[in-house]
Amino acid sequence: MISIKHINKSFQDGQHSKAILCNLNLSICRGERVALTGESGSGKSTLLHLLAAIENPDSGAIFVGDKDLATLTTSGADQYRREQLGIIFQNFNLIECLSVWDNICFPARLNGHVDKDYINRLIADLGLSSHLKKYPQNLSGGEQQRVAIARALAHKPDLILADEPTGNLDEKNSQKVAELLMRICETYHTTLLMVTHSHVLANQAQRHLHLRNGQINPAHVE
Q1: pTM score, whole prediction
Q2: Is 3.20.20.140 the CATH classification of the domain at 30-42+75-220?
Q3: What tens digit of pLDDT does each residue of 61-73 get?
Q4: How many Å apart are CA 31 and CA 29, to the nearest integer?
Q5: 192: which residues sit within 8 A by CB, 6+ positions away?
């Protein structure tokens, strides 16, 4: 499903170039549920951005399914994200002028397939049934995060990229969301790469990897 080969990525820090990912290699099978931990600034979010074709590596190759992300045009990258990805951002990125229901259904509508029964089950599982007519500004941070998670799952994507999916949730809701993500991925054979600081959450995945010094080092797999 995912094949990352010899990826390098640096950013400018003043007049100096700072290496974030260094000759990184990673393979993830279709349907596999993988958690990625690491210190702040270690490159976890950068790796998700590369897989989402939001950023490009300095060198190396990334394949998702049969797609070579380096060859995607701007419109091709948009289509790839719209059809194949479910992205859970740290900052939610909800559309303020849309209701909770319309935010959740938005990606499914873009793809021309809204499975209302499936979406209503997601909504119920995430405890959002009483909030559907509300707008994002009327929700708490935790509620907004659950809406963002439902939206990412609504169109049954092939790959879910989750950046701290339970970062604003209390322990009870974190557990609920973690169980839902794992169950959805297992049911639909969806691939999951989840960045998290929570070792409790990471240990629910099939594989727990650790990013350090720009590489996923087997010595730091937990």
Answers
A1: 0.90
A2: no
A3: 999 999 999 999 9
A4: 6
A5: 32, 33, 34, 159, 160, 162, 181, 182, 185, 205
